[in-house]
Amino acid sequence: MVEKGSIAPDFTLDSDDRGAVTLSDFRGRKVVLYFYPKDDTSGCTAQACDLRDAMPRFEEIDAVVLGVSPDDVDSHRAFRAKYDLNFPLLADVGGVVSDNYGVWGERSVRGRTVMGIERSTFIIDEEGVVIEAWRGVDPRAHMDALAELLHV
Predict the structure, then answer these.
(1) Domain 12-150 grouped into CATH 3.40.190.10
(2) Which residues contact 98 (CB under 8 A, 6 or more apart)?
């Protein structure tokens, strides 16, 4: 499980708009890596739109935002287009990266137990070290917590 102070596990995933994206390609920049359960659901949409609207603030500190879910690239493209998202969405279809970060497991959805992503965010510094790890993120308060931590 990835925790604060650990090196962020590297990965390469397909993106909705850039082909393959490799985390280590962003060394030298801060990375907001967020894992979310499903494209185009209410909580995930609120969270993504907050991040979209705050993108100029992230750009001021040379930070990149990457969203990861188990949805495929086609689903990501539709979600991104529908809400005019301005950051890449990465397809972790098999859940391998989510599992490596410790965010894949049993969750309760409308009274049923299913396997899926626990909404989580990792802030990674310029050297690839996790400087913050949040699990069970509230999608509607996510941006406030990021703004406080990153001073944006």
Answers:
(1) no
(2) 35, 68, 70, 92, 104, 117
Q: Please give the single-letter amino acid code of residue 53.
A: D
Which two three-digit tokens encode residue 126?
């310029």
pLDDT of amino acid 89: 98
- Our answer to whether residue 44 is catalytic in this structure is yes
Q: How far is CA 103 from the centre of its chain?
A: 11
59 SS3 class: helix
Instruction: Show me where the domains of the chain are located.
Output: 12-150
Output the average pLDDT for the chain: 92
- In whole angstroms, what is the distance from residue 57 CA to residue 124 CA? 17
Beta strands 130-135 and 120-124, pairing class: antiparallel
Sheet holding 120-124, edge to edge: 20-22, 12-15, 89-91, 63-69, 30-35, 120-124, 130-135
Residue range 55-79, pLDDT digits in tens = 999 999 999 999 999 999 999 999 9
Residue 128 is given by DSSP the state S
Q: Which of 8, 32, 44, 130 is catalytic?
A: 44
Residue 138 CB partners (closer than 8 Å, separation 6+):
none
Supply φ then ψ for residue 12, to 5 degrees: -130, 125
